[in-house]
Amino acid sequence: MRKVRGSLTVEAAIVIPLLLFLVVMAIDGGVEMYLECRNTVMALEAEEKIDAVRLFYFCEGVGDIIGDGDSLYKKINDKSYGN
User: Which is higher by pLDDT, 73 or 50?
Assistant: First the structure.
């Protein structure tokens, strides 16, 4: 009978699980990155949006209350803005 050497089978038994492990770890890293990005986007969407117009008028109202009398609205209406 002929002798059959099984060295390729032994090498494949070591290499294939190692390659499979590396592929699974790469997929796991990708899934973790996806989940982190998704959670970050959800957190950013949950933050309160800034209403610039309302904030501007609030600051104008505070200026009128404390009586500085130098509001931007008055400067524009008095034509003294930019002179």
Answer: 50
